[in-house]
Please model this.
Amino acid sequence: MDMGIAGKWALVCAASKGLGKGCAQALGREGVNLVITARGEAALLATAEALRAANPSISVRSVVGDITTAQGRLDALAACPQVDILVTNAGGPPPGDFRTWEREAWIKAIDANMLTPIELIRATVDGMAGRDFGRIVNITSSAVKAPLDILGLSNGARSGLTGFVAGLARQHKLAGRNVTINNILPGAFDTDRLKLTMKTVGANTGISAEAAADVRRVQIPAQRFGQPEEFGALCAFVCSVYGGYITGQNLLVDGGAYPGTY
Model:
C-alpha cells in the first residue's frame, strides 16, 4: 500500500533504538525524509546509516542532543526544513517507589514526558495547519490506561500529556486543516526500557530479570513481547494520508494485555 507520504519530512525523537527507531524505519520505507534525534552519538549515526541504506532516495539527518532540553529541541527543529510529521518520544523516567521520589524527580519526568512533546507540538502545529497536512504521534505508554505501580512517574506525566492532546486535537483549526494528533500506547515491547523494568521487578521480588520477563510474557494473551517494527508500521499508517480521519485517539498496542472493554 502506498501511504501517500513520500517526500514529506518527519522529525522522529529518540530514534536511535527501540520504538523511535521502529517508527523511523517504517516512515523511511514510505519515502519520508527523516530528521532523527538521540543523545547517544554512536547509536544514532549507525541508525542513520542503516536508514539511508534501506532507502537511498530519502534524506536522513541526525541530530545528537537531548530533546528534553530547550537547546535539543531547537537543534532538532532547525535541522528539519519543515515538519510534516512529528513523532515525539523520550525515555521514560525510572521505575521505583513513589516514597523515594522528591520534587526534582517529578519535575524531570513532567519535563521529559509531558512538556517536551507539548513544546514540540507548539513549534510545529500551526505550520502544519498552514500547509493543510500534519501528523503528530506521541509515543506514550499502555500505563496511561492500566497503570503499573512502579511506574508512577511515567503514569502521572504521560496522563497529563494525554489530557492535553484530547483537547488540542479537536480544535477545528487543526482537525479541519488535515492535522491529526494521536497517542500510541505501547505495552510490553522488546526494548531496553522493558529490560530495565524487568530488572527492577526482579529485584523487588527476588528473582532474575529473565524470570521476571518470563512471568510478564505469559500474562500477555499474544504470549510474546512486541517488536519495534510492528509499532513502527502502525505509526506509519497513522501518519499516512489514510490516517486523516483518526485524531485525538489513544491507540493501544499491547498484545491484548489490557483487560478492559473500553
Q: What stands out?
A: The CA atoms of residues 182 and 249 lie 5 Å apart. Strands lie at 9-12, 33-38, 60-64, 85-88, 134-139, 179-186, 250-253. The chain has nine helices and seven strands. The chain has a mean pLDDT of 95.
